[in-house]
Amino acid sequence: MIASPLIETLRVFNEDELRSLKHFIQNKSLYQSDHQAGVISLFECILPFAPDFTDASGLDRHNLAQKLAQSTSYIAKVASNLHSVVRQFVAWYQQKEQQDEFNEQLYLLDFYRKKGLAQRFESLYQKLEQQLQEAGAANVDQYWEKKYRLNRYKMEWMSEYDSKGDNHLRAMIDSFDVYYLLLRAQYTYQLLLRQHNHTFAVNSYLEVLQQIEHYCLRNDQKESGLLLLYYEALLILTEREDSDFERFQVYLQQYASILPQTDYYSLHGLERQIMLKQYREDQSTPPYAIFQLYKNHWEKGLLTFGGVITPSIFANIVRYGCRCGALNWVRTFLNSCEHKLGGLRDTTELFRLYSAYYYLYNGELEVAEAHLCFDFEDALRKVDARCLELMILYQLGSPILEHKIDAFRKLVRNTKGLPEIRRENFHNFALSLRKMINPDLTWNDRKIDKMIASIQAEVISEKFWLIEQLKKRKKSKGKSSSPA
Known about the structure:
Elements: H1 5-10, H2 15-26, H3 36-46, H4 61-68, H5 72-98, H6 101-115, H7 118-135, H8 143-162, H9 167-174, H10 176-194, H11 198-218, H12 224-237, H13 242-255, H14 261-280, H15 288-299, H16 311-323, H17 327-337, H18 347-361, H19 365-371, H20 379-396, H21 401-414, H22 420-436, H23 445-457, H24 463-476
């Protein structure tokens, strides 16, 4: 027996593993054997020869048969059974090594659920839920798998014992996988926004996005809320890829008729966000594509909610329409929006501000100046208005422009609540405009081209307008220009 597969296997066990094997064999509920009593007796007989198992006499089949008062054929049969039990132990032990205390408690929770032990179930559920909440997703191995099982057991419990016959609860359980994906994605989305444990957040988000996409494909892409979340994530995690955008547009075309209204509006809003991101990477050229998208959405009625248009959408349409030269269309748009602005208390002032923007591009500079207003509560709008004032004064050739630029730089520096990226944009705008009116500089084509290239490379407000003014100067070679 010393050369048997059983002894060969036992020789590789360390003391802890042999101790666990002993407990395993003594717990008859953990394994299956036709001769459990014989297995226990034989193991106790050979265990004293551990860990080497090299005593030929002690492990001799005849001697073991004599000690147990059994035949050698019985010993052979039981030894074969013991070897099978050892293999079962190996599988059980490896699985146990991968389990932690929380997972073991989850198994116990499910046992209480199946047996209807209400008080024990509720007590253990509260304990486990608190443990997960205190640890946090970034600090618990397999956090979402555990949270999923914990919440699913709770919902199954409610269905079976608290709310029998509740069809709404049954529907919730049937769609629990969707709920779980959204819950997990929402959490990791917030981690990404806060830049908290970024590596964990990105890896976790990429994983759940893959699950979302697979779920949508299996369900014929009818889960529009999930797809909305999937494409929002693409904006955060990756640069926009043409293939992603094409897939997104195909989805809109195929399912627009069956989407709930909220998803229909949201998905078209996301379509604009994707194109806005592309445009912001190169603001020195007219935004024809994004303006055309806004124009189409406006004509389809996708930009008003309850008859109201939001300030940001209104502002973008006017800006992009003017930069694309669609001045007649913008004028009509302004006329139709005068009483549709919502979301701010100073909507009248906002309408006047962007009317001034239109008049600037239409060449009606005095009218544009007359429409300027600066009484905004919002910090960004207030600085926006002063930026537009500088643009108008520049084109008017105003003698107070230099003084106004200095005041603008001070405003940008001291305004509280102004996003830092916009603060930098406005600061660079002021520096560029100050350089353009510097009387000590002589301008020729080479210097103008050099400044255009510099502006194109910068993060700067009104990049398109600045470059257009320099191009006009290059063409006219007016009083501010000098020959090389």
